[in-house]
Amino acid sequence: MQRYFKIYKPYGYLSQFITNERPRKKKKLLGELYNFPEETMAVGRLDQDSEGLLLLTTDGKTSAKITGNGVEKEYFTQVDGNITEEAIEALQKGVAISINGKTLQSLPCKVFKLQERPVFPERAKKIRDERHGPTSWISITMTEGKFRQVKKMTAAVGFPTLRLVRVRVGKEKLDGMDSGEVKELDFFDY
Q: Exactly one of 47, 59, 80, 189 is catalytic; which is it?
């Protein structure tokens, strides 16, 4: 029987269960948060310094369908500075980013400025405070997911990412979960 989970991946954790690094260098892994079945895998990933919704399953076919079929992923991103309409329009159209030394064009995506600061659990490592200037929160919804793509996109338009929280994958939402919280599901709604 296949099993399905959603987790609020905390800041500082790797989106994996084992690491090939020797010694482990005190890396925090998802298996430390819950007693997952041995065959559990992350559906996609979030970087160590990103947080939010991560889907986990023992079902490799469902994992492949979600990661390979253009399922939407939505991120709330805190950026350095008061983001401009021009920067938002550039993100919407797609920007040039570097992946493994090659310049690629990101696909068009949905981007808008959030009018209110979203409420998330406090992060283990503090974000700089207001004394260092203003910040903005934006929503970015995309179907691709290259290495550190959102961070590279916001930097390319002059507004580096300070905090990145994935809030949705397909129809599955973060829904006010606490950092580190795990919920077992009957299936993924994507």
A: 47
